[in-house]
Design brief:
By secondary structure, the chain is α+β, with helices and mostly antiparallel strands. The chain has two domains: 135 residues, Sandwich (Jelly Rolls), CATH 2.60.120; 107 residues, Homeodomain-like (Arc Repressor Mutant, subunit A), CATH 1.10.10.60. The chain is built from twelve helices and seven strands.
Length: 265
C-alpha cells in the first residue's frame, strides 16, 4: 500500500502466520499472526511492512452495524478512539476456520446464509470483547499501541460521542445542530473538531451511514427504491440518488441489479 488508506467501515484482519505492520497516525503498529485484529478504517492507515504472511483475510463491516450490536462500550470506545484491537491469545485454527467458512458462505447466493455469517461475526466480536475484558492487563498493552490524535484530548470523548450519536440516529432527520447539541458543543466548533479528527465533515459522515444502510436494503429486500431512500434517512429521492452515485459510482438500481441476492436459502 503506497499511501494511507481510509474508509468508513470496521475492518477485521486475520492471517495464521507472520507479521503485518501498519502505520497509524505516524506510529507503527504490528499485528501478529494467529490473532484476530480490528480497527475503524476511518483512521488513516497504511501497510508499511510484512513478514511470513500466508492466507490473509479481511472482513469489512459498516460502523453502524457494529455499534448497534450492543457490544460493551469498553470494547467499542477504543475502536472509535482510533485504536487497533488485537486478540490477547492466538486462536489461529479457530479463526482460520471461521474466516474460511465466511469467505465460502458470502459467495453463495443466499440471503439466509449471509445473515448467518453476520450472526457469526457478531458472536466472534462478542467473544473478543469478553476475552479482552477478562485479560485487562494484557488488553491494555495490546489496545494502546497507539492513541488517535485529535484537536485536544479533553475534546476527543465528545467527538467520539458525535460519531456514536450519528451511528445510532442517522436514519432520523438529524442536522449539525442536533449532533452538536447532543454532546454539548457549539455547532461551528463541533464541525471543525470532527473534520480535523476524522478527515470528513459531519454531513458527509451522516450521508455515508445512510448510503451504507441503503446498500444493505437494496441487496436483502425487495422494497422500492423510494422507500429505501426514506428508510435510510434521506428526505428526497433526488438527494438519495445523487449521494448514492457519488459514493458508489453507480445508481441504486444498478447496485441492486449487480448485488441482488436470490430468495433461495
Amino acid at each position: 500500500m503506497n499511501r494511507p488508506d481510509k474508509h468508513a467501515e470496521i475492518e477485521l484482519n486475520f492471517f495464521s502466520r507472520g507479521k503485518l505492520t501498519y502505520l497509524f497516525w505516524g506510529e507503527r503498529v504490528t499485528v501478529e499472526g494467529g490473532k484476530l485484529a480490528l480497527f475503524w478504517a476511518a483512521t488513516p492507515h497504511q501497510i508499511v511492512d510484512f513478514e511470513g504472511l500466508d492466507s490473509y483475510f479481511v472482513v469489512t463491516l459498516p460502523l453502524p452495524w457494529v455499534l448497534n450490536w450492543d457490544l460493551p462500550e469498553s470494547f467499542t470506545t477504543p475502536i472509535l478512539n482510533g485504536r487497533l484491537i488485537q486478540e490477547v491469545e492466538a486462536l489461529g485454527p479457530y479463526d482460520e476456520h471461521l474466516f474460511e467458512h465466511w469467505h465460502r458462505d458470502i459467495n453463495q447466493n443466499s440471503t439466509a446464509i449471509h445473515e448467518m455469517v453476520l450472526l457469526e461475526v457478531r458472536a466472534r466480536l462478542a467473544r473478543l470483547s469478553r476475552n479482552l475484558e477478562q485479560n485487562k492487563a494484557a488488553a491494555a498493552g495490546a489496545s494502546s499501541a497507539h492513541t488517535a490524535r485529535s484537536v485536544g484530548s479533553r475534546d476527543y470523548s465528545k467527538i467520539e460521542s458525535m460519531a456514536r450519536f450519528i451511528a445510532q440516529n442517522y436514519s432520523d432527520q438529524i442536522c449539525l445542530s442536533d449532533i452538536a447539541s447532543a454532546v454539548g458543543l457549539h455547532p461551528d466548533y463541533a464541525a471543525y473538531a470532527f473534520k480535523k479528527t476524522f478527515g470528513v465533515t459531519l454531513n458527509n459522515f451522516v450521508i455515508q451511514h445512510r448510503v451504507q444502510h441503503a446498500q444493505r436494503l437494496l441487496v436483502i429486500s425487495s422494497k422500492k427504491i423510494l422507500e429505501i431512500a426514506f428508510d435510510s434517512g434521506f428526505n428526497s429521492l433526488s438527494r438519495f440518488n445523487t449521494s448514492f452515485k457519488l459514493l458508489c459510482h453507480c445508481t441504486p438500481r444498478e447496485y441492486r441489479n449487480s448485488h441482488r441476492l436470490s430468495s433461495s436459502s
